[in-house]
Design goal:
The complex is a heterodimer of chains A (about 475) and B (about 190).
Chain A (H helix, E strand, L loop, with lengths): L6 H9 E3 L6 E4 L2 E4 L5 H10 L9 E4 L15 H17 L2 E3 L9 H8 L7 E4 L13 E4 L2 H10 L1 E4 L3 E8 L8 H12 L7 E6 L1 H4 L3 H9 L8 E3 L4 H7 L8 H12 L11 E6 L6 E3 L7 E3 L13 H14 L14 E4 L7 H11 L9 E4 L4 H9 L2 H8 L2 E2 L20 E4 L14 E4 L2 H10 L5 H4 L5
Chain B lengths: L5 E9 L6 H4 L19 H4 L22 E4 L11 H9 L3 E4 L4 H8 L4 E4 L2 H13 L3 E5 L4 E3 L5 E3 L4 H9 L3 H6 L2 H10 L2
Parallel strand pairs in B: 1-2, 2-3, 3-4
Antiparallel strand pairs in B: 1-5, 5-6, 6-7
Classes of the chains: A alpha/beta (about 475), B alpha/beta (about 190).
Chain lengths: ~475, ~190
Amino acid sequence: MQQPKTIIEKIWEKHTVVQEPNKPDLMYIDLHLVHEVTSPQAFEGLRLAGRKVRQPERTYATVDHNVPTIHRSVIRDEVARTQMETLRTNCAEFGIRLADIDHPDQGIVHVIGPQLGLTQPGKTIVCGDSHTSTHGAFGALAFGIGTSEVEHVLATQTLWQSKPKTLNVQIDGTLGTGVTAKDLILAIIGKFGVKFGTGYVLEYTGEAIRNLSMEERMTVCNMSIEAGARAGLISPDETTFEYLRGRRYAPEGPAFEKAVSKWRQLATDEGAAYDHTVHLNASEIEPQVTWGTNPGMCLPISANVPDPALIENKEEKASVEQALAYMGLEPNQQLTSIEIQHVFIGSCTNSRITDLRKAASVIQGKKVHPSVRAMVVPGSFTVKMQAEQEGLDKVFKDAGFEWRDAGCSMCLAMNDDVVPAGERCASTSNRNFEGRQGAGARTHLASPEMAAAAAIEGRFVDVRQVAAPTV
Amino acid sequence: MEPIKTHNGLVYPLPKRNVDTDQIIPKQFLKRIERSGFGQFLFYNWRFDEKDQPRQDFTLNQPKYKGASVLIAGDNFGCGSSREHAPWALLDYGFKVIIAPSFADIFYNNTTKNGILAIKLSEDKVDYLLNQAEINSYILTIDLEKQKVHDELGFEADFDIPAYHKHMLLNGLDEIGITLTYADQITQFEQTYN
């Protein structure tokens, strides 16, 4: 009998080009996504060495990190403009498809890959961006790489990779009403820490994961890197196949059915062994908010900010003290007493159509608190168009939200969408690092529903107490 | 890439855990299209205040650490964004060796592609080194061939490094050049692949 295998091992075996002793394996890369910030030096490297892109048709580029999300016909930031122009020149020279700033497919690279059907089960997918783990939601092995590796993939369509260890993140039970995929992944990182996934590929399993929609699965896999894991994935199932059916780059007709029967084989076999397993019961999870300066510093909304006086470990105590000082919070302060000045709904974690629908359902008929500036940045031009067809833009605008064009925006504040120093933002993004949304800015991560509720109230509240339980 | 065989240099201690690449190089400096010139922006928001003046309370600004080339840091160094600008900034500033209890995976890969030696040592050894570098002008010697770190006071520690990374660093190799020697295997793989 053949030994049961995890999906990770199956994908690995299928993509190994060279295997030699005392070396990583040479892995074939199916899809390489490219953006303006981490690619210019890679293309320049190719040019200097007189090398070509080996498989332009396996490469797809867009601009997302520093595109303006308003008034984008003229880009005032000269350095950013140069970077976008450089990508345009590079894509033309090396024959790579580009969803440029005015293209209907433009958007955050981790939103458009799935949306176009480029992301498919069993693929190896890389991008010079750590949130490439998002694509793992489809049962793809997808991970972020540095610019040297971007150049390597462009030139060879391969990467030298050591076979990762496997970690089963098993989530049994069901999420309560008003508790989202974002709360789930924040709770996982809060419980197991920001480095429990280092050296591993995560596979999310269990009843709670099976019940998630594709867009919810993307939210979970997206933040695998915040747990230290370069990649996190979910074995594909009917939910995956139905999402892919009819997408532009997915197979069509009989080829689709053939692909589905192949994809079915990918799922982790019954009885396959992992190097490590962690468990969490979904029914125990409440809506989460981060209070500190890394995503592991998060708590249920009913909790109070930690008190460093009660922490014995010296280093732990110091990092809590540093975080509280940076965040301008008092020990033991209730999370629901934290007032915010900004709300950002967007990013590769939470800017898809279902995220916008859920946020809109919370604010429907209400007004943004007078001391809050709130904005919605759809993940792609397509998401924006769809939201407008559904009238969501009107719901947001009537409430007092700004309605923007697609990009990474305030998640990392490379464009003009910046939180001023000392001010506080409820953000649906993925990183609450010091200065992430602007030098001195204070970020609190939360779900779209929680961020929307905070926009209305001007402080964090339990969304389950202020909104009808449609979420 | 410059080969690195042995290194002897002044140590700078950064006793923080989970130093993310947003701290190593903030996003406002990622718009350049060159690999060079990022050292001036290293740890920018810690080194400089809102008026771009050096912060005296950030130790890297102290004269005693001028010319430091060995960085000792807390656990999970380099977590977060995949930006290779982080090792570019460290290298351009002058750091050739980084020692920590652990490194984030993407950052670790990125260091080795740029000729920076990232060494994992146990927490207690890292604590000892941090302590030495805080009180003294402290010099460490690193021998990659022998996989050893030592000082002049009798401290010595062995470290592990994957054989492949060691080989690449010792010889300063161009990885793409090596991979292209496997071009036939890649072509063959592509022909049978579906």
